[in-house]
Design goal:
Blueprint lengths: L9 E4 L2 E4 L2 E4 L7 H12 L1 H19 L5 H7 L2 H19 L1
Length: 98
């Protein structure tokens, strides 16, 4: 699926995210200015993180089709690797499909 969000890069100024000339401000009466800036930085990093997740998913797919030793196959099928792979796909789906 092609992502429908505003392409990056997104930038942060204070607790405002700027995406291709559109500014998105965040205000919350219970959040500190530090927390609002941290939230804005996280949101601004979203396009880069989504691209990194797509790269990681590509690596997982590539490795699945490689000729691997028995030990390597066991490693790829291990719980930590499978958990990381699942987390990548879940995050991609959450970002792209809701």
């Amino acid at each position: 699926m092609t992502t429908q969000h505003t392409p990056g890069p997104w930038t942060v100024e204070g607790h405002t995210v700027n995406a291709r000339g559109v500014a998105y401000g965040f205000a919350n009466s219970t959040a500190s200015a530090h927390e609002l800036r941290a939230n804005a930085r996280l949101i601004a990093a979203a396009p880069d993180m989504l691209a990194a997740l797509h790269s990681a998913a590509t690596v997982f797919e590539f490795l699945r089709h490689c000729q691997l030793t028995v030990g390597d196959r066991a490693l790829l099928g291990s719980a930590p690797v499978m958990s990381a792979q699942d987390a990548c796909y879940e995050a991609i789906n959450k970002a792209e499909e809701g």
